[in-house]
Amino acid sequence: MSDELLDYDDVMDRYDSVLGLEVHVELNTASKMWCGCATTPGAEPNTQTCPVCLGLPGSLPVVNGKAVESAIRIGLALNCQIAEWCRFARKNYFYPDMAKDYQISQSDEPICFDGHVDLEVEGKTYRIEIERVHMEEDAGKLTHQGGAGRIQGADYSLVDYNRAGMPLMEIVTRPIQGLGDKAPEVGRAYMSHLRDLMRALGVSEAKMEQGNMRCDANVSLMPKGSTELGTRTETKNVNSLKSVEGALRFEIRRQGAVLEAGGKVKQETRHWRETDQTTSSGRSKEQAEDYRYFPEPDLVPVAPSREWVEELRATLPEPPAERRARLQQAWGFTGLEMRDIFGSEGALDLIDATVAAGSSAAAAKKWWIGELARRANEAGVALDELSITPAQVAAVQQLVEAKTITDKLAREVFEGVLAGEGEPAEVVEKRGLAMVQDDGALSTAVDAVIEANPDVAQKIRDGKVQAAGALIGQVMKAMKGKADAARVRELLLEKLS
What we know:
Layout: H1 8-14, E1 15-26, H2 65-77, E2 81-82, E3 89-92, E4 102-105, E5 112-121, E6 124-137, E7 141-145, E8 156-160, E9 167-173, H3 183-201, E10 213-223, E11 233-238, H4 241-260, E12 268-273, E13 278-284, E14 294-295, H5 306-313, H6 320-331, H7 335-342, H8 347-356, H9 361-379, H10 390-401, H11 407-418, H12 424-431, H13 439-452, H14 454-461, H15 468-478, H16 485-496
Parallel strand pairs: 11-12
Antiparallel strand pairs: 1-9, 1-10, 2-5, 3-4, 3-14, 5-6, 6-9, 7-8, 10-11, 12-13
Helix pairs in contact: 3-4, 8-9, 8-10, 10-11, 11-12, 13-15, 13-16, 15-16
Family: Belongs to the GatB/GatE family. GatB subfamily.
GO molecular function: asparaginyl-tRNA synthase (glutamine-hydrolyzing) activity; ATP binding; glutaminyl-tRNA synthase (glutamine-hydrolyzing) activity; transferase activity
Subunit structure: Heterotrimer of A, B and C subunits.
């Protein structure tokens, strides 16, 4: 690693950090922002395109009404003002992933502005001021061939325009100051809040690892007591909560080292590298880019009526923070238990749905955060991408509570459900996993184990009840785990008393 780093606490002793977070959210509308092309993920490259999203001469865009509705709902949920009149602009630049050489966006007339969110981090509340939420379109996707998938060293690049024209909302904060040493944690908490909010609104899948939501993280430092903002860097397209926190912390340490060595921070874009958890230099931004914005001549202004805005306000869901607090109280979980849930993406919704399907909160948490999270990690998928539903998890727990299966056997049931063998009860029947309820069969197994272990049996007769564990284990093994250990213990002690 070529960049020197200063100890984080040393940087905080001498400098104040200033953050600026620009978050792009890809909407889940059925069609693109300006045309009727599908937005189905995973389609063959360049099969979801048309003259409009390819920027062919003579094609004309039409605004996606659902995207405008989603933008307004996002703005309202972020406590923004909603413009009575706004319009689109052409942002002119050349990149190979934007076929028409300009992007339709919004410049100085965004649809939402002057908002804020309040976040609680380690018992302290921080207010993040939102400058704007504006509508634009996404670019295509470049795939670099050779060079380990990076543009540096690649032999050539391929362009997939399926993503070009996808509805994109950009949420831009004002400079965030006064965070002290909690800046990285607050940045992560803000992204987590936005992710949960987008999902609650139903406007985006907000899966950062799939690019539905990504963050450009701006950082600068200024000496303690100074009021002049320092030179900032912008780490582009950070796509996980952990990486947002890591990129902010790394840049604070890197910039601190530069300043302490008497150098100057270079204004530039940087790239986050997951492999070694560092940022690397990208493109210099010493000179402000001139995008030559001008009003988009092919689109009429957007003027949402106040009546419509209020109708949309009435559709807003329960704020994520209030929902978490309500669920924590209803479930009786500690703050530490809730943090475990927040640390597993999508777990809160899955646990809530499992409880609604008839499971206890403790059991739902146990299965989703434990067994099922392990299986998701092994499969390399998100928790909510496992081929099992909350209702099925609740059904497994009900089988456990009915003593049809044990916790250990439940793991086999999950395996069967995930393998597509049917509903939990069907898996139990097909695999023969139901526990033995016949006391006669259990009694025979207990007798056999006692006869095979006379020394241990005598110890139990002599009052050393703790020795029963070894015999219970042998009975359970003989019954292939399909016995109630408590009932086995009762039978064993009855016979040896």
